[in-house]
TrEMBL record:
GO molecular function: NAD+ binding; UDP-glucuronate decarboxylase activity
GO biological process: D-xylose metabolic process; UDP-D-xylose biosynthetic process
Keyword Hydrolase: no
Gene3D superfamilies associated with the record: NAD(P)-binding Rossmann-like Domain
Protein name per the record: NAD-dependent dehydratase
Keyword set, alphabetical order: Cytoplasm, Decarboxylase, Lyase, NAD
InterPro entries documented for this protein: Epimerase_deHydtase (IPR001509), NAD(P)-bd_dom_sf (IPR036291), UXS-like (IPR044516)
Source domain of life: Bacteria
Subcellular location: Cytoplasm
Length: 321
């Protein structure tokens, strides 16, 4: 048990709020820091009355002086629609946010876990992606603010580790979905489910032959927490994701089947620099963390669809940022 609070930046977001739930359930004290750029109080409202939960509205691009025992650094918009809305702020969030969290971790000697991403592999020539692959990322494209920001954050983690002896943990998260994604999040799983439930056309970008590997949120959080609890020499980077690989057409068909929707498919232009394929090699996570996902895409979509049915009746009109 960590004797000081655990800091979760981006704790009011999709993944961060699930992480806060798990940490509170395990008996930890949690300090949730978020500027509500894409997150919402709604995601952590059920924790607000708890004596071991504290919420702080703060932008991680500014220094933060608190006393904590561990840091999970998740603050950063994750959906292309939102990270491209204010790309300069996205890079600042990844880079200045990492520097501030590293400075904080150095001062209080806290272990720091960085939520990195499969996007560091860019549009990969190696398939599936192993951690040793350096990636193929456009440094000047519309996705670069996110991809290069996350790559620079990884560099900072490893340099603070080598230069200052900081205990770091880097997880490369592959596409994750589940309850609490915002209906207007803009990512593919939420778009397809919302479109299917509303009877609107399903928007396939490009031919729909591009692939992604989708991990259910509970599996992801388990992997992240195992990484935080792993021995100090396990710094990563480590892939956390579900190796089941699907084309966007296959995903659309599965969503139509599980929702019972008769929505039609419409084809729209493929966004610039959209990776053609993505699938994690999770050998390292299996070996070092004893972790592997347990929820198949079909099984994980069921509670996710139930959540979106409810969300569309209640807060769907609320802006995601
Ligand atoms: P999200 O957008 O739901 O959550 C991000 C949270 O960070 C939000 O609550 C947002 O308000 C907050 N935030 C953004 N900028 C901030 C700032 N400057 N200061 C403080 N808070 C800020 O996204 P998510 O899916 O929960 O992603 C969480 C983390 O995991 C991100 O770092 C993301 O890059 C990473 N990740 C997620 C996925 C995925 O598929 N969900 C995949 C790869 C990596
Ligand atoms: N920082 C912070 N909280 C702390 C300690 C540091 O936000 O508790 C910030 C600080 O503003 C600094 C950054 O972290 O800009 C990096 O800190 P570090 O000690 O590595 O560098 P320095 O202060 O020497 O620039
Ligand atoms: N996509 C799609 N229709 C949508 C939203 C996304 O076909 O309505 C595609 C997108 O072009 C990409 C894949 O789905 O090839 C995953 O997109 P997402 O934004 O969810 O994540 P990322 O591209 O960051 O992996």
């Amino acid at each position: 048990m960590v004797d000081k609070p655990i800091l979760v930046t981006g704790g009011a977001g999709f993944l961060g709020s699930h992480l806060c739930d798990r940490l509170i359930a395990a008996g930890h004290e949690v300090l949730c820091v978020d500027n509500f750029y894409t997150g919402a109080r709604r995601n952590i409202a059920h924790l607000l009355g708890r004596p071991n939960f504290e919420l702080c509205r703060h932008d991680v691009t500014f220094p933060l002086y608190v006393e904590v025992g561990q840091i999970y650094n998740l603050a950063c918009p994750a959906s292309p629609v939102h990270y491209q809305f204010d790309p300069v702020q996205t890079t600042k969030t990844s880079v200045h946010g990492a520097i501030n969290m590293l400075g904080l971790a150095k001062r209080v000697r806290a272990r720091l876990l960085q939520a990195s991403t499969s996007e560091v592999y860019g549009d990969p020539e190696v398939h599936p992606q192993r951690e040793g692959y350096w990636g193929r990322v456009n440094p000047v494209g519309i996705r670069s603010c996110y991809d290069e920001g996350k790559r620079c954050a990884e560099t900072l983690m490893f340099d603070y580790h080598r230069q200052h002896g900081l205990e770091i943990k880097v997880v490369r998260i592959f596409n994750t979905y589940g309850p609490r994604m915002h209906p207007n999040d803009g990512r593919v799983v939420s778009n397809f489910i919302v479109q299917a439930l509303k009877g609107e056309s399903i928007t396939i970008y490009g031919s729909g032959q591009q692939t992604r590997s989708f991990c259910y949120v509970d599996d992801l959080i388990e992997g992240m927490m195992r990484m935080m609890g792993s021995p100090a020499d396990m710094v990563g980077p480590v892939n956390i994701g579900n190796p089941g690989e699907f084309t966007m057409l296959e995903l659309a068909e599965l969503v139509l089947k599980l929702t019972g929707s008769r929505s039609k498919l419409v084809f729209q232009p493929l966004p610039e620099d959209d990776p053609r394929q993505r699938c994690p090699d999770i050998g390292l996570a299996r070996e070092k963390l004893g972790w592997a996902p347990t929820v198949s895409l079909a099984d994980g979509l069921v509670p996710t669809i139930a959540y979106f049915r409810e969300a569309l009746q209640t807060f769907a009109g609320a802006p995601p940022r």
